[in-house]
Amino acid sequence: MTTGSRSIALSELQLDALAELVNLGVSRAAHSLAQMVQDEIVLSVPKVALVSREEAIRTVAEREKANLIAVHQIFEGEIHGRALLIFPEEKSLELVRAVVGGEASLDEIMELEQEALAETGNIILNGCLATIANMLERSLKISLPEILHGASVDLFNLQPPPPGGDSVLFIYINFIVRSREIEGYIAMMMDLPSLTALQRLLNEFIRRTTGTSVE
Amino acid sequence: MTYKVLIVDDSKLARMAATKVLADSYPDWAAVEAGSAGHAMSAMQDASPDIALVDFNMPGRDGLDLAAELIKLKPRMPIAVISANHQQQIVERAQALGAAFLPKPLSRNALEEFLQSALQKLKTPAP
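Above: the input entities. Below: the structure tokens describing the complete assembly.
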């Protein structure tokens, strides 16, 4: 785990609990995606890391040279922040084609592109966020999906920036749809007060599931 | 007996998907599509649907608000609130209204199960 200068350190057990929640959320999201494309989704075990914004930008920029497309949603509640589903822009039509089905013509796919991306992102991000909220026994208000285009640095610098700076909970997922290889990332950005709240909720979650008190 | 199903979702793709499952399961039933809560309210007057499938996360009035209004207009209409946002609080609010909650993406099984229970409800005479 790497932390920025103004970030927060999660204990090994807290990070482990977070990985467990994210795994549940992402598995559910992958199951949803599999239903949408009516095919098996091969999903790599997600790596969960809490990193600084700069490191998130660097990680994505190093792996992805081309332009990126992202579905963006804001979540609000005891913890608040932004969730992003990011993948290479060149794969977006491919993903839409997988979701819309083989019979659609290129014209239809182009027409439905924005729409299908927003709906797909909405299902994946909601699957993830709602699972986490349920496991933490809290509720989150989730905004409508918005489509963003740009480089890594644009996607992680959305306006307005949080006053106290923020950290990025970075989840790297790799999903393969049929023979089309579509690689994606899920990132959640939270500021320090939200991360502190998350830490407290994780402690409650650990206490509930293990009966062990942690601080 | 055929029925009319009102499908409310701001996503055209989601409406297409629901219409397809409906057409596969009940080919002689009719689908009435609406892209917003406002359109759904007009469709209630124009098309007089029997059953409603309502997306939760929509711009303007959300699906739970719409479901509450639909129930006021037509108390015996079977309604399912559909969302990828399966948070406990949302599921409970749907159930408190007397609506079913179906997770998104809509699976054939979940929709068929709901439509069967809707049919039972529609066939039962009003008390």
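Note for the figure: Residues 73 and 83 of chain B are 23 Å apart (CA to CA).
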